[in-house]
Write a structure and sequence with these properties.
Elements: H1 5-19, E1 28-33, E2 38-44, E3 49-55, H2 64-81, E4 88-90, H3 99-109
Parallel strand pairs: 1-4
Antiparallel strand pairs: 1-2, 2-3
Helix pairs in contact: 2-3
């Protein structure tokens, strides 16, 4: 059986998730990337709660990478408002390149420690 690109990404994501567990003080910053948008969430895995979320939907200015950086800054502002400074970055099987990297860089610029 030949693995599709999506199946490979899910396998990599599960391998990453074995190692990363978010807590209330150091949540997991999970990224989802579609063809048009990028979404991220701060997740507390111990309690199963989403602490904060941000997405690029509704924002049509700039390139997709520029919008991803804006989303990173937005999630960092929400996290800092809830006294969260450190997060674990979960790239969800995507390569740390392009929009995923831009989101992480935007979060770092806004003061979040990854």
């Amino acid at each position: 059986m030949k693995l599709t690109k999506e199946m490979k990404r899910k396998r990599i994501h599960m391998r990453i998730r074995k190692k990363i567990k978010g807590t209330p003080t150091k949540p997991r910053l999970s990224v989802f990337r579609s063809n048009k948008e990028i979404y991220c969430q701060l997740i507390d895995d111990l309690n199963g709660h989403t602490i904060a979320a941000a997405s690029s939907s509704g924002n049509t200015t700039g390139t997709k990478s520029e919008r991803a950086k804006i989303v990173g800054k937005a999630i960092a502002e929400k996290a800092l408002a809830k006294n969260i400074e450190h997060v674990l970055f979960d790239r969800a099987g995507y390569l740390y390149h392009g929009r995923v990297k831009a989101l992480a860089d935007g979060a770092r610029e806004a003061g979040l420690k990854i």
